[in-house]
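Handout, section B. The chain below has 375 residues.
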Amino acid sequence: MPSMEDSQSSEYQLDVSREAASLCQSLTTFQTSPLDMAPELARAVTNVVCSLCFNTRYSKGDEEFQTMLRYSKGIVDTVAKDSLVDIFPWLQIFPNKDLDLLKESVTTRDQLLLKKLKEHEEAFCSETVNDLLDALLKAKLSMENNNSNISNDVGLTEDHILMTVGDIFGAGVETTCTVMKWAIAYLLHYPEVQKKIQEEMDAKVGFGRCPLLSDKKILHYLEATIAEVLRIRPVSPLLIPHVAMKDTSIGEYTIPKDTRVVVNLWSMHHDEKEWVHPGDFNPDRFMDENGHRMYSPSQSYLPFGAGIRVCLGEALAKMEVFLFLSWILQRFTLEIPEGDSLPDLEGKFGVVLQVKPFKVTAKLRDVWKNIDITT
């Protein structure tokens, strides 16, 4: 009998596949002109998270979605940006355009999330849980009933709910979009890798059906390519800072309690002692001698962190990247528009390692010209 986890995974796969089909449909409208895929990727990934959190999705051009894009860009462009305010907080009393943009973006985000919460509160029925907000409201009600004689300081508050959903959007949208953009950028630089992925898919999946999550166990080269993208361009080169909860040590180094600890993931993923020619993009480093994808050829590979603070969205992010890329590459060949230069692979450092904007031509593969690409 399928477990609840299997059922949830199947439901998430349906959500991701639906957005993959919508994304492919959008790509067909740009057959004769270059396309910046970033907004389409953002809508697809956002809709997956919206389905999870709100049981809803946005259509192309939706004004609320445009608002989300604006505030998300404002936060990403300013958080973790090299700023003296991070070192000397008292400097915030002086005019600061980046800080003003961050505050404005966070306020817009909070207003939108609060609107969603109020809508759910009005329609809430404890017997029906359709999404994360419903689940959190049900948990809040349960805690209030159980703690009716306890201080109001105990329990799940409205702020807790808003912060939880806000964290999911912050961690689940921009990061996945960034991985997708890096993957596409590298496929444009290495068309032979794209061709090899397509040959693998043609042989193992064919053209009679769309890719499924279960195909991960047979599409070894696609999986290896995704792993190599996560290695060579980690979304967060410096993982989120943590604080030591007690006196401890790492190797020969003593780490006193309350010490701020930052993991240099970039250094780990580009360590010449662990990787052969770490600056080269080479998916084969994640393949064994039998042509199967290796999970981790080195202990110096932690794209989602590790331990109890590992990225909570790891499973969903891997599902999205695999399904989006497999659907796209099964149907389209991605090329540089005539006259354009290849994408810049240096990136722009911020809360994530951002890809500089670039355009692409998504050409429908010959075999798909007489097939419904959304099936």
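Note. The chain has eleven helices and six strands. Compare this with the example in section A.
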